[in-house]
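Help! Submission page says 'invalid entity' but I think these are all valid:
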Amino acid sequence: MTDTLLELKGLEVTFTTRRGTLKAVDDLSLTVKRGEILGIVGESGAGKSMTGAAIIGLIDPPGRVSNGEIWFEQQRVDKNPESMRGRQVSMVFQDPLTSLNPLRTVGDQLVETILAHMDVTKAEALQRARDGLTEVGIDPDRINAYPHAFSGGMRQRVVIALALATEPQLVIADEPTTALDVSVQAQVLDLLKKLCRERGTSVILITHDMGVIAQTSDRIAVMYAGRLAEIGETREVLTNPQHPYTQGLMASTPSVDAKSFGQELFQIPGAMPKLDALPSGCAFNPRCSQAHARCQADRPPILADRAACWLMENAS
Amino acid sequence: MSFVVARDLSRTFNLSDPWIVRKLTMRPKRLLKAVDAVNFEIERGTTYALVGESGSGKSTIANMVVGLLAPSAGSITIDGQNLGDASMSRQEQQRLRRRIQMVFQSPYASLNPRWRVGDILSEPMRAFKLIDGATAQRKRVAQLLEQVGLSDSDASKFPHEFSGGQRQRISIARALASQPEVIICDEPTSALDVSVQAQVLNLLKSLQKEFGLTYLFITHDLAVVSTMANKIGVLNQGVLVEEQDTEDLFTTPREDYTKMLLSSAPKIDFDS
């Protein structure tokens, strides 16, 4: 048994459209270790949700995994994601309002999930469902309540209980707290982190919020226009970002302990390029303040040292 | 006297069952006090932020200030004129309303998907009879688009052709179209990415400088208002629990509730 739980090798997700083939994820390679929390950050359209969906095999046509390999537990799974979906890898979606069935009680939904993936009797499944609710801080006597009877934060707790009910080895959390208040967000993140640490479950946390990542994850992968821009230990990446895009993201995040109230926030000029109009060379070069001729001509190598950026080469 | 004044502002919602059900079940009326005797003042050209969790009544206050909801008790005064003054004629009321505009939370839901951007932006001009003639309106639309960082060729496009950040710019342009003095921003960036959020916040700030706008900023995220607001009021369950200048609130919060909100904001800080 090795340390690596999940490995992506040159993953590519493409969409065939009338305007040609678009690469939503482009040559992405990364690993997730056992018990590790990996954060994936980026703006809308960076391909972070597509990466999560590709791992669990939930990309709908016309999109497809067109290239690359996904290895889970030393097994290649990109051809048959059903083998591990739900049982070994589960998912927490962004909006707890739409990821629960409003017509069935939360207990029903928990029991259904457990029975579908585990070899247990109905009574055992019910007991597990009650235990699951207790673990996420919900009174197990509310097992027969419907989703509408819970608040947003409570509903997201139910979704976390659902995700952990089958004792998976990897949980993919796609923007789990974006729909929640700041104070509830902190509770939900703490809960997710605590439960996964206790069980040694790995987590891929997908978000656009640097603050959420900083509080939760061990390592960070920064994505831009479908490509990996920077990857490294959380502390390293956040205190000493190498890629100009990461630096820009950090500077534009408002903070409660800002030394300069009333100052303008730093803003990255321009917007994320559309996938059918990617600039040549480095995808970030039109918005980069430090871009030079080479950035427009050649694509930076996948991770020179830590950041995929030509500046890294000049520095060394 | 301050430009915007809210005095003992309250709003109660009636959640009771229908009358006949109440009589049969012998249950009393159920009332929800969403906003309870809130007082605040906003100086001209400054930003006042109302911060609180879901259900704290902040959006109810926003709706009352902009005139979408009538207060149950208390009053709102803008530039000395009482918003709920029954003796005002319809015309006077409309003239007052023109000076207060709103930017809504979701730029996906607040723009009519079947209207072109040019129509969306010229509707306030027609409604308030500010600018007559199609050519003059088109000119003003182009000017508005430029002010929010879009180009005049965008006027013929539909909202779905824009990204979230660009749509929020269109919402801001629509609010500016009637040349308002007060703009109420109800969570204007909570549906946006951080980098886009920074762009929209900076835009709002530069517009404030240019036109001397007064903002009432509604949010649940204290970090967002740290750069925007001059004064912050913290709401909890319809009651204004604390009000301080921005810097003082962040450095010396008085109430436990404010401290809780501050501590739950995500921090990128490894020293502690």
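Support: the input was valid. A stray whitespace character was the problem, and the output above is from the cleaned input. Residues 1-89+182-192+213-264 of chain B form a domain with the Rossmann fold fold (CATH 3.40.50.300).
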